[in-house]
Amino acid sequence: MRSDLPLAGNRSSSLVTVLVGVMVFLAVLAAAGGLALNNVLDRWTHDVAGNLTAQIPPVPGLGEDARAATDARVARALEVLDAYPGVAAARALTEDELVTLIEPWIGSGEVLNDLPMPRLIDITMRPDALPGLDPGAMAQVLRTAVPGATLDEHRLWLSRLLDLGEAVGWLGVTVVLVVGLATAVAVVHATLAGLSTHRPVIEVLHMIGAQDDYIARQFAAHALRQGLKGGAGGFMLALPALAGLGLLAGRVKGGLVPTVGLSVLDWIVLTLLPFAAAGLVMLTARLTVLRTLARMP
Amino acid sequence: MMREMGENWGNRPPDSEAVVQFDQVGLRYDLGPEIFRDIGFSLPGGSFHFLTGSSGAGKSSLLGLCYLALRPTRGAVTLFGRDVTRAPRAALPRLRRRMGVVFQDFRLINHLSAMDNVALPLRVAGVSETDIRHHVPELLAWVGLADHLDARPPTLSGGQKQRVAIARAVINRPDLLLADEPTGNVDDRIAMRLLHLFEELNKMGTTVLIATHNEQLVRRFPYPRLHLDQGGLTLHPVGSEPWNGGGTARRSTDRPYP
Q1: Scanning A160, A245, B79, B97, which has the fewest C-beta atoms within 10 Å of its C-beta?
Q2: Minimum-distance CB partner of A207 among B69, B89, B94
C-alpha cells in the first residue's frame, strides 16, 4: 500500500520491530514448551490413569519352597483382584519383566535367585469404573487375602505432576502476555511519536478532506509491515533453539520420560504466532491513531 | 482538462444560495483580543471576490474559518447551506472535499512528488489510479510544470511550489476555492495565468475567494472586494477605488456587508 506519510524513517519504528521479534521468539519457545509438555502429560494420563500396581511381598527364603509359596500368594491375589468390581485385567509381571525394571539399579545376573523380590501385579481398570474407585477399600480387600500386600495408586502422583505441568504452562502464557503488553505499550509510544512528527502532514491531509480512517490505515499498514518483519525474525531465531531443545529431549530415552514431540497441529499453532503478533501491533497502532485524531480540532 | 471540469458538478447549490455565509462572527485565540467583531457577509454561489487588508488584519484567519480549521468564538458560519459552527468532526471531510484551498505557505508534502501532492485530494476521495494518472499530469502541464511531475517540493522554486499548491486545490473541481496570496511568489505573467485559471473555474460555477496584497491584480480584474480592517469587514463593489490605507473603506459608496 502506498503511503503519504514517511513513517519508515521513524527511529522508534525499528524499536517496535525488535520488540516484536523478541516477543515472537519468547512466545514460540513458551508455546512449543507448553504444547510439548501437554503432549507428554496427555500420554502419561492415558497410559497411567487407568492403572494400579499391587505389590506382593515375597515369602522369606531362597529355596524352591519359598518361591512356590510366593507364587501361591500371587495366584491368590490375582484371584481376588479379578473378582474385584471394575477390574478389566490383572496380570502378574514375569520374572524377566521384573529383571528389566530393576536392571538399571541393580544390574543383570541371577538376582532373583539371590534376592527375595517382591512381585508386581499390573491392574487395568475399566474406564467407567475409575470415577467411583476407592483405592483404600480395594487395598483392604487385597490385604485380607494376602497379608502385607500393598496397592500403589499412580493417579495421586500423576495429579501432582499434572498440577506442576499446568503451572509451568500458565507461566509460559504469562510470559507471553507480559511481553505482548510491553510490545503494545511500545507500539502506542512509537505511534504517538509518529503522529506528532507528522502532524503537519496529517493536518494537510485533514484539510483536503481525508477521514481519520484514511490516516489510520497508513499507520496500521506500516505497523503491520514492522510486525511481520519482527515476527519473521523472532520465529527464525526460535527455530534453531527449538531444534536444539528437541535434540536434547530426544536423547533422554527410557521408561519415565515419554518421547517429547510436536504434532503437525502444534506446528501450525507456532507458525501462526508471528502473524498474531503482527495483527496485535497493527490493531494497537490503528486504535492509537483513531483515538488521538479524535481529539484533534 | 478544463472542458471536463464542466461536467459532474452535481449538487452545486443554486446561484441564489450562499455558499459561504458569516453571521455576526467573532473570533479570538484563547484569551487574546478579538480578531473579528460581528463579521457578516455572504458569498453567493458562482461569485468571485477578493479579500484584502493589511497584513495582520486577519485574512488568513477568515479563510481558516471558511475551511473549518478555525471555529468561531461567536456567531454562525454556514457553508453550502449548512450551519457548520458546531458541526461534528466526522462531518468535516465531506465539506472539505467540496473546497480547494491554496495555503499561503503552500503546505505541500515534502517527501511526495509534485504529481503525488496534486493527486492527494483525489486519493483521499478514493478516485481510481487510472483517473489520477490521466488528470494530474494534464493539470500540472497546464500550470507549466509538465517537466516537474516527479520533482519533490524542496527542489522546486517558490513559484513552482505555489503552482503545485494551486493545482492541488483545483484538481477535484471544488465548489469553493479559497486562496491565500496565491500570486505572492510568481512573476506577473504567471500571476495572470493563474488568475485566468481561477476565472475559468469561476465561469464553470466555482465560488472563488482570493486573499491578496496585489493591488495591481485587484485593479485589473473587475471583482468585488471584501476588506478587513481592525476586526471589521466592508464590501467594496466593483469599480470602487482599491484600498489605500484606511480611508477608502469609509467612503460613502462603500457599505457594510451585508
Answers
A1: A160
A2: B69
> Cβ neighbours of residue A6 under 8 Å, at least 6 residues apart?
A198, B111
Residue A193 sits in the same domain as residue A272: yes
pLDDT tens per residue, range A125-162? 887 776 677 878 888 888 888 888 888 877 666 777 77
Q: Cell digits for B188?
A: 506577473
Which DSSP state fits B5? H
Q: How far apart are CA A122 and CA B115, in angstroms?
A: 83
Closest by Cβ to B93, choosing from A201, A203, A210? A210
> Strand B82-83 relative to strand B74-79: parallel, antiparallel, unpaired?
antiparallel
d(CA B180, CA B69): 14
Q: DSSP for A157-219?
A: HHHHHHHHHHHHHHHHHHHHHHHHHHHHHHHHHHHHHHHHHTHHHHHHHHHTT--HHHHHHHH
Number of domains into which chain A is organized: 2
What pLDDT was estimated at residue A282?
95
Confidence of residue B148 (pLDDT cuts 50, 70, 90): very high
Sheet holding B18-28, edge to edge: B34-44, B18-28, B74-79, B82-83
- Domain assignment present for residue B29? The answer is no
Q: Is A28 left (phi over 0), alpha (psi -120 to 50) or beta?
A: alpha
- Chain-centroid distance of CA A269 in Å reads 13
Nearest-CA neighbor of B210 among B86, B100, B121, B126?
B100
Spell out the SS3 assignment of B56-121: CCCHHHHHHHHCCCCCCCEEEEEECCEECCCCCHHHHHHHHCCEEEECCCCCCCCCCCHHHHHHHH
Q: Are residues A265 and A189 in the same domain?
A: yes
Domain count within chain B: 1
Cell numbers that stand for B85 in this block: 459552527
Enclosing domain of residue A118: 58-148
Residues A166 and A281 in one domain: yes
Please check whether residue A128 is in contact with residue A119, taking contact to mean a CB–CB distance below 8 angstroms. no
Show the domain range for B149.
Answer: 2-7+46-71+88-256
Distance of CA B138 to the CA centre of its chain: 22
For residues A283 and A289, what is the distance between their CA atoms, to the nearest angstrom?
10
Residue A286 maps to a domain: yes
B78 located within any domain: no
Contact B109 A209 (CB under 8 A): no
Please tell me whether residues A117 and A246 are part of one structural domain.
Answer: no
**Chain A nearest CA to B53, separation (Å):** 24
Relative to beta strand A119-125, strand A51-56 is: antiparallel
Predicted pLDDT of residue B11: 46
Contacts of B109 in chain A (CB under 8 A): 4, 201, 204
Give the C-alpha separation, A243 to B119, whole Å: 51
Spatial separation of the C-alpha atoms in residues B175 and B72, rounded to whole Å: 22
How many secondary structure helices (H) and strands (E) does chain B include?
A: 8, 11
Which grid coordinates belong to B75? Answer: 456567531
Check B109 against A207: CB less than 8 A apart: no
User: Is A253 domain-assigned?
Assistant: yes
List the Cα angle B113/B173/A206 in 5-degree steps. Answer: 60
